[in-house]
Amino acid sequence: MVQLSGHRLPWAGTGQVVYWGIWTSHGFSILNRLRSHLPDVSTVLMDITTLEAYQDLAVIEPRPATAALTHLLPEENAVVGELAARGNLRLEQERLDWAHCLEVLLSAANRPQR
User: Is the per-residue pLDDT at 1 higher than 80?
Assistant: First the structure.
């Protein structure tokens, strides 16, 4: 059984968990906390390619998170670095092309579990 922030989620440890969060330091902080409890969490649409494709829709994040992100994969840390290097960008999911996102999410849901 997985316990997150005092809440028990018995189902979370039994299946495939996929995270799709906001492209901000805070979104990656959430992923970091989640992965500290569920190390096999995978991500979708949280990569450099997606950031490059939608950077024109990003805005400045006024208060970036500063916590150490020790549970991120190297490619996720690279995105966090790019967000900071490009002026602390914030890219919200609802600004992306929904048809593309749905396609990627459905593909992730149909991937075999690790």
Answer: no
Q: pLDDT digits over 11-46, tens only?
A: 666 777 889 988 899 999 999 999 988 888 999 999
Answer whether residue 83 is part of any domain: yes
In a domain, 10, yes or no: yes
Rounded to whole angstroms, the maximal C-alpha distance in the chain is 41
The model's pTM is 0.84
Range of the domain at 105: 2-109
Compute the chain's Rg from CA coordinates.
14
- Which residue shows structure tokens 């593909």? 107
**Inside any domain, residue 78:** yes
How far lies 52's CA from each of 35, 45, 48, 58, 111, in Å? 25, 11, 6, 10, 25
Q: Give a yes or no: residue 114 inside a domain.
A: no
Count of domains in the chain? 1
Beta-bridge mates of residue 18: 42
CA pair distance 47, 8, nearest whole angstrom: 29
